[in-house]
Amino acid sequence: MTFNGSIELNNIRRDDEYSNGMVKAKSPVVEIFAYMAAGKNLDELDGKLKDSAGRVLDMNAINTAVKDIQGKAFAAGGGNQYAAAELNEIRKFTILPLLQEELQLLSFMGNYESIGYNDSIYAEVSKLGGDKSQFQALGGDVLFPAFEHDRYAVPTTTISGGYAVDYRKLQFGDMSQENIGMEQVRVDIRNKAARYVIFVIWNSINNTNNVKFVAQGAGVAQSALNEMVRNIRRFGQVNIFGDYSMVSQINAFHGYDGVVPVVGGVSQAALNELRRTGLVGMYMGSVVAEIQNAFNLTRPLPTGDGFELYFPDNIMFVVPAGLQSPIRTWTRGGLSSVQGVDVATGRNLARFDLEIAADVARTNEYKVGIITDTALGAGVPDPRA
């Protein structure tokens, strides 16, 4: 049975209210905790870590840090909120590097930016306004348009991940639950972030009254994809991305000519790519990429033969790469952590929150192409459901 814990408002505790600020991202205790959680040999850290004063830590100092972690677990299990907050901060800085690396993949969809806690999020759209330009001047000045700028605030949403912590196990050095829990938080937040961005893109394209490039049918038709790439290519180099169920269908589309012809007209380089990743890496000069779409293990299917996906597997996006993409994503302030008690079971819970925003530049929706496979489903559900 899946445990679905929740922290109610009457017992939630924000770690920043109890933190002494001693734990930093580069603190040696963070690396030591990560090694313990991963089951690695702490001897590997001998002479490789430095404290805040720049002193190299030997094994005696590392073992002292281990005992300090176990002591804080003992105190946290006894209700010491300051010890629990410090452990949560150590977890946060252990999770954050890998999570930040994976969130950088959001830049493949468009422009990604990480901003500070106190920064506001605004999108600015530049467009040409005024009279259309003339071919040449005939006895006077040439009329031409000028750039106009539309600036608007972009709302954020908070996505969360967490797990039940066992301070008793932690105080005796059993880190297996910590490793599994932190990994689940990372995967959970990464996939929820992708789901939210996809939902925003889908809504923006479907709700616009401007020009848009959309196609749907049972399966991905090569003619529809070719037409989509041809249109979006007008705005720059193209990226194609989506769930594996969608981008893997491109494997069946031929047209690759290698130096040495091979069966089916597919080059040896393309065949090597297929063997390595299961996907072609390029199609018609466009990069093809899979958005990782893991099973949500907290939501088993009613039929008992699988789990729900984090986002639908029936859509594929065709967008111009880099700065030409109208898709923008932000994360604000990194991870924040809170702690609480599940009122139903009495378990201690650690929760980690990430503030995220996404936007498709207004009036630029035509730069995003969407292909939907009706055989796999229709539409994109609200990510908050």
Task: List its salient traits.
385 residues; alpha+beta; 6-stranded mixed sheet; 5-stranded mixed sheet
Characterise the protein shown here.
The chain has 385 residues and is an alpha+beta fold. A hairpin with a 6-residue loop joins strand 10 (295-300) and strand 11 (307-309). It is elongated. It has helices at 28-38, 59-77, 81-103, 167-171, 176-207, 222-232, 244-247, 268-277; strands spanning 13-14, 111-115, 122-129, 146-153, 157-165, 213-217, 238-242, 282-283, 286-290, 295-300, 307-309, 315-320, 327-341, 348-360, 369-373. The strands form four sheets. It has a six-stranded mixed beta sheet with strand order 6-15-12-7-9-8. Strands 1, 2, 5, 13 and 14 form a five-stranded mixed beta sheet that branches. The chain has a two-stranded antiparallel sheet with strand order 3-4. The chain has two domains: 13-95, no CATH class; 156-373, no CATH class.
Give the overall shape.
Answer: elongated
Major beta-sheet overview: 6 strands, mixed
Compute the separation of the termini in Å: 21 Å
Poorly predicted runs are 255-266
Strand content: 25-35%
SS class: alpha+beta
Number of helical elements? 8
In total, the number of strands is 15
Spatial strand arrangement across the major sheet: 6-15-12-7-9-8
